[in-house]
Amino acid sequence: MDKEKFDLLYEGKAKKVYKYNENELLIEFKDDVTAFNGLKKSNVVNKGKINKKISEFFFKMLNKESINTHYIKEYDDSSFIAKWTNLIPLEVIVRNFAAGSFCKRYGVEKGYKFDDTLVEFSLKDDNLGDPMITKDAILLLKITSEDVLEQIETISKRVNKILSNYLKSKHIILVDYKLEFGLAKKDGRLTLIDEISPDTCRFWDDNTMESFDKDVYREEKGNLINAYEELFRRLNI
Ligand code: UDP
Fold first, then answer.
1. Which residues line ligand 1 (CB under 6 A)?
2. pTM strictly above 0.85
């Protein structure tokens, strides 16, 4: 659908963000896919629509569980209306099993199951390659307050329980994922933003350990859209 009547505020690797009104944004999911900090790039027909639907599904589920997310309502097949927030420049990485950069960093075998949920933080800065950051550095650099950081950690773990339990019933393991947060322009409330999709999470079949996420693209393990569509089907959306 034509969105030219809205001001484009930002175009990222996988999404476009428009001003919808003073307190709301229009978030459009693109068909572009990137990996390795933008070094690998492709266009995958239908990816935007699927990721929008999957994100919408998870945000609605979390809203029902009283998690304050930015999702308001659908706009069209590839976009939704969201609360406008001032972004906190952190990527919150939540891990249940070892995969990806964690394995590389510590030499741990892929699939190692953690006894407890691990929450890590990266500074959201493409030019720096989103470096990991400690909680102390976050506070000393005044990226956010101690209170907000604590809330972010608590919410991230609650999200983990809700999503993991649901996915378990569909025989899918939630391996790890990335969350982002902002403070709503309208009322200053801490809000879960961005997307929750196979671009930003790792999902494995609980029996075969097959991936239904961007690792299919990162590791060239098959057809990305087939994997995303299979996840979509399994979620009963
Ligand atoms: N992730 C993401 N965006 C990033 C970095 C990580 O969405 O910029 C997600 C990634 O898809 C995975 C989780 O966060 O589900 C943990 O990623 P990891 O640190 O293992 O890095 P990666 O293997 O993606 O380089």
1. 91, 93, 99-102, 130, 176-178, 200-202, 214
2. yes
